Predict the structure.
Amino acid sequence: MPVRFRLEDPTLSTTLRKIEQLVRHHGGRTWLVGGCVRDLVLGQQPRDLDLEIAGLPPGQVHALLSEHFSVQFVGKAFAVFKLQGLPIDIAIPSRILIDASTSISGLVRQA
């Protein structure tokens, strides 16, 4: 079931929506990860966003993002992109770490 949340920062909200639509249109999936998820679960507004884009190769992600944003490639061991002037980092997962059978309670137990 999707979780609903509201980003109060209009720039972050608009940028996230644009990235998600671009990625989905090209067959990928966008995931919020890291501290921004924790902040939202705690009812706080995140100061920055960490995203993972799955289902698209790094070169295609870079090309898509570069059409709309100033993008800097910073990852050497992983594919990580920073959007210049925005507090948004985007990573490409090197492999799938969990699947649909993974439950929230299972993740809590593992932590």
Q: What stands out?
A: The domain at 10-110 is CATH 3.30.460.10 (Beta Polymerase; domain 2). The helical segments are 10-25, 35-41, 58-66, 104-110. Residues 106-111 have pLDDT under 50 and may be disordered. The longest strand covers residues 49-54.
